[in-house]
Design a protein that fits this description.
alpha/beta; 5 helices; about 45% helix; globular
Length: about 160
């Protein structure tokens, strides 16, 4: 019988919850992959694996999508990366704790494209700041996701 091992993948560029991920991972003894194209200080925690990918558009996303499995959890604000991880069966959380889901990913991609178009045409779009409540929501969502992943049965051989 294969034992399901949960790993966490963090799209680290501009991620405001890296410290929270590390604390939760330590409590559950889970490996975390902090993925970026540089500028991230490596952790001394042996559970935290710092992955530096080459410069280039989507290099970190490509690394995460290539390595993540259905047992894992990805933390990202990148909607196309979220879609790729969901296709592999992984759980995907935003930094504010809101999950990306199969049911909602199409709408999220469409809104992303609309917002990009609005920015390109000079119309301003508003991005709310990251709050203490967002941080708290993220911690609760990550804990819930880990507990749910632990309950899943391993895939049949």
């Amino acid at each position: 019988m294969t034992i399901r091992v949960i790993e966490l993948y963090v799209d680290a560029d501009a991620c405001p919850v890296k410290a929270e991920v590390e604390r939760v991972a330590e409590r559950h003894k889970l490996t975390v992959h902090i993925v970026s194209n540089g500028g991230i200080r490596p952790s001394r925690n042996p559970l935290i694996q710092t992955v530096v990918v080459p410069e280039g558009a989507d290099a970190a996303d490509d690394w995460i999508a290539e390595h993540i499995t259905q047992a894992d959890i990805c933390i990202t604000a990148d909607i196309p990366l979220a879609a790729r991880c969901l296709k592999k069966g992984a759980t995907v959380l935003r930094h504010d704790g809101k999950p990306f889901t199969e049911a909602g990913i199409g709408n999220a991609l469409a809104m992303r494209d609309l917002n990009r178009h609005l920015r390109e045409t000079g119309m301003q779009t508003f991005n709310a700041g990251f709050t203490k409540q967002d941080r708290s929501n993220f911690l609760n969502a990550l804990e819930t996701a880990i507990q749910q992943r632990k309950k899943l049965k391993p895939p049949s051989p």
